[in-house]
Amino acid sequence: MAHLHLTGKTLIPVDGLRDKYTIMKKIGIASAANVYKAMYLPENLPPEYVSVKVIPFLFARECTKFDQEIQMSVFSSTPNAENIVEIMKTFYSNNKFSCASMAYMSEGSLRFIMSKWFTSGLPEDCIAIALRETLKGLSFLHGRRRVHGKIDAGQIFVNGNSNGVAIKLGFEGSMYEHYQERWNPLAMASTSTLPLRDITNWGSAPEVIFGAEKGNKYVHKPHSDIWLVGITALELAYGCFPVRDRAEFEAVIEKIIKKKKLPTMEKLKKIADMENVKGKRKMVLNFLEKKFKSLAAKGERKERQFSPEFEKVVVKCLSGKPEKRPTVDQLLQFEFFRRSKDLKFFQRAVVNGKRVIDKTDH
């Protein structure tokens, strides 16, 4: 990760235009790059907020990878890609930096939002909206024979303003980790559980894991993305995924598939605890006990129930056989998404809702 101190400074592209970017604050990281909120000041147009990803030239290998990611995602600026975080412009600045300006997503990622305001998961109606918008972006990618390979709650971003709310999927060059999310205990590695920030690695589809174990580099395919949609649905439902290793993870998935039903968080804990057949002492993280006591103190339900329509989506996405998973367009026809509410509901419940929570806490 690059340690850049650019806040308050101005980046001027070397393309001869008079556009410039005034850096306001750091909002994210991505490998050797930092991501900033910036004020874009075009020569003949009104100013607007953007995100700018910046990587120093001295990270030569990372710069090359960055350029490749940009090439992979350059089509995201086309009109039909409204559910993909847009790469607006790439440029070099100050003879020091390789940069990309992106659409500014004011509320950050869903993982960041949950880590601060919805620690026990999003309301199910909001999960339906968030996944529906994500699937629209994924449909755009799959329709162009592109796969994502890194879908999780940390790469689904929300923008809210006076014009409404937008939910978009980060892809290749527009992917990054929200800066404050990195220090969230749920996202970090611990002695108790696997880190959420790496969930697309340890929570990958069976065919991906099997290929890695055999020493083969598996090429992600659309059905592997669908698996990750199912895993993302679980993260949005619970707010976390309390497993210590792949064996516990597989035990949870197996139970869901067998029962065709999502466990409550208490039962999910027990499933992971019971995965000790090899003589290992496995316990799910201690903070969950404190979390449940905290939820009870606030009058919230520990035993959260899910609708059959939502459970069907998760079960279908997590089929162990890739060919049995629905395509993204088939998934959008499931009742869970066909009856989902509009973005205004998400804005009221989540974007405006977290502001109400902030006022209540203060």
What does this molecule look like?
The protein has helices at 60-73, 110-117, 124-143, 199-202, 206-213, 222-238, 246-259, 265-274, 287-297, 308-317, 328-331, 335-338, 343-361; strands spanning 10-11, 20-30, 33-41, 48-56, 87-93, 97-103, 108-109, 156-161, 164-169, 177-178. The chain is built from 13 helices and 10 strands. β3 and β4 (48-56) form a beta hairpin. α3 (124-143) runs antiparallel to α6 (222-238), α3 (124-143) packs across α13 (343-361) and α6 (222-238) crosses α10. By secondary structure, it is an alpha+beta fold. It folds into 2 domains: 10-103, Phosphorylase Kinase, domain 1 (2-Layer Sandwich), CATH 3.30.200; 108-361, Orthogonal Bundle (Transferase(Phosphotransferase), domain 1), CATH 1.10.510. It is globular and about 60 Å long. The strands form 2 sheets. Strands 1, 2, 3, 4, 5, 6 and 10 form a 7-stranded antiparallel β-sheet that branches. A 3-stranded antiparallel β-sheet has the order 7-8-9. Pfam families: Pkinase. Belongs to the protein kinase superfamily. STE Ser/Thr protein kinase family. STE20 subfamily. It comes from Forsythia ovata.
**Could you name the CATH topology of the largest domain?**
Transferase(Phosphotransferase), domain 1
Question: Which consecutive residue ranges, at least 5 long each, have pLDDT under 50?
Answer: 276-301
User: How many H/I helical runs?
Assistant: 13
Estimate the global geometry from the Cα principal axes: globular
- For CATH, the homologous superfamily of the largest domain is named as Transferase(Phosphotransferase) domain 1
CATH architecture of the largest domain: Orthogonal Bundle
Order of helices and strands: EEEEHEEEHHEEEHHHHHHHHHH
Strand content: 15-25%
Strand-pairing-aware structural class: alpha+beta
Largest sheet: 7 strands, antiparallel
Summarize the amount of helix as a percent range: 25-40%
- When the domains are counted, the total is 2
Overall mean pLDDT score?
83
- The separation of the N and C termini measures 34 Å
How many distinct beta strands? Answer: 10
Radius of gyration: 21 Å
User: What's the CATH class label of the largest domain?
Assistant: Mainly Alpha
Pfam family, one: Pkinase
GO molecular function, one term: kinase activity
Keywords: Kinase, Transferase
Family: Belongs to the protein kinase superfamily. STE Ser/Thr protein kinase family. STE20 subfamily.
